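Rather than argue in generalities, we have chosen a single entry, letters for residues, whole numbers for local backbone shapes, without further comment.
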Amino acid sequence: KEPRKLPPHQAEVDAIQQDSPKIFHKIHLPNETDILVEVSSTTTNRELRYSIAAQLSLSSPEGYGLYMKATHKMVSLDEDQYFFDNLRLPADVPKKGKKVKEVNPSNVLFLVIFRRKLWFNVIPGKDLIADLTFHFPQEVPRYLRGYHSCTNEDMFNLGGLLFRVAVDSDRSQFVMIPRMLNELIPADQIGAMSPEEWKKNIISSYNRQSGITVQEAKIAFLTEISSWPTFGSSFFDVKQTCEPDYPLILWFTISKKGVSLIDPKNKELQVMHPFNRIIEYSSRGNFFQMSIRTLVKSVIFVCETSQASTIEDLIKSYVRMYEEQKQITRPRKNMFF
């Protein structure tokens, strides 16, 4: 194996001092639960991903990723790096021009999070553990932030399902619906009706869905939105000035199909670039840049966002996934040419 790049982490030192043969680390999951997973000095992030998937009994480890969340920033962990090398990075990387201070990594507050990263082969009902642990808790916030384009009937139905998830069969909670609208309806649509109108329609949907369990309501929610083109997409607010035909502020959206630019005011798609048309892409500071190949020429798109490095990492992960899929499906006779 490749050598470690950084000195031992405090957890490794503690294990040696306590003569402990095993090290366990807490991994946080999107459904607000956590698990303890055994790690060693030579555990890579890829190996840890497989270990977590096996411990959770997921149908496949593919498509998931490890993240480190410190204060308000969440960073994706490199699959090829050692887990304990990654754990030291937030504390060990000093700001430029500043004297390096002795930092005890155990005093740095951060969480290690395991979540769905690449949304391919996600079919609601196929893997219930994945649906309940990852897909539902990750998709609900996107829906409530108003990223999807949907009809009133969609919102009534989904509002009824989310209300059932919140209260189960406790009908005495109907009176609370007007106060719960931010948990039931997309933020940009709440003002479209009075709270009482929302309440009446959500109750009507809830009654039609009578007899289903909380778990079934979660799967039904996923099943309904899985047909939408923006299902499983990651949304980033960006500012651009290079394309006069596009709005100044855009949603830069990444899905299994490619990169889409959407007008956040009316949720209309401006353009969609499949990954095979993106020739180059990179981030520097708060700027992200990509070159797109068209039938006539190549076009360069530049945007400004505080999540530039996250965008680069996510595109790289999707491209890598498709390249690996090609290697698997390539006929054996072509593998040696």
